[in-house]
Amino acid sequence: MIFISTCSQDSTTDIVVKELDANDVLRFNIDKPDDFAWDFHSRGFRVADKTSGKEISEKTLTSFYLRKPMYFDLIDVPKYGCVENWRREETDELFNDFFRECQSRGLTTLVRSQNNKYGKLRQLLAAQRHFRVAPWHFFHGELPDELKNGRWVVKSMTQTPIGQGKVFFVKEVDPRALDLNYPWFVQERIEGEEEVTVVYIAGKTYAANAPRTSFGGEDSRKSLMEKPTAWPRCELSPAEERAIKGFMDETGYRFGRFDFIRKDGELWFLELNPNGQWAWLDEKNEHGLVSMVADAVKREDAAHRARQKAESRSGLVPSVEL
Q: 118-132+192-274, which class in CATH?
């Protein structure tokens, strides 16, 4: 059975789970703990969905598919903490550690981010060996001389909210106006013709593009939330395919969604989201993206099952035991 760790508002999981065998999947929504019961102990574990009656244990787990275990309903944590925040942190830590244990036993599917973590800094350093990358700075306390001229956009390294209902979006700024008491991530503005996003799925790619004029600002995420934009599928050159594969081979990822800007025919790297949302590119599976991801999950799950069966025949301790 495939264990999917996500949240109730993850529409990508809504779509991809339809391509999987529904009777062979347990979806765990971390933001709905009252819908579940769990018990982890020295001999194994059990997680049960109280609404459907499904359950998974060390005897039936074959794959752990990490999606988006997160909370969209933010809480205002008082100075000395609160019970709800404690519950969330305890649950996060347990299932994060469960993921790491499954990963160490070769049971994770597609996403293996904790094992080879590449944040924004390491991504940009690696990307310079495969793509065009605009100049960038992470700075605090003093303004680098390079930032006193030219055009720059400010970004965020995390998805941490900056206030009630406020998210940090990419926007053009004059770095000289930034408060040096805060840490900043800025990059030279790329005057490109189109945005290109590429989903990498275990050696295969799915690319789509949209003209930059279709976005209301610097950040395509904001435009997508306010007014979805059509992203038709597009082709990549053999050299671009090789560059993407080279980056993934170097960083150790098997899955992720790239963001690029195409300028004068060349791809300029922005970032890789190792487990980003992607179903919005092909919600109805008209171009096969959902099937590509689901098939990769099923192939890896089949490999896990075959290995477990071989271990069972050889008398080894089953790899799913905790």
A: alpha beta
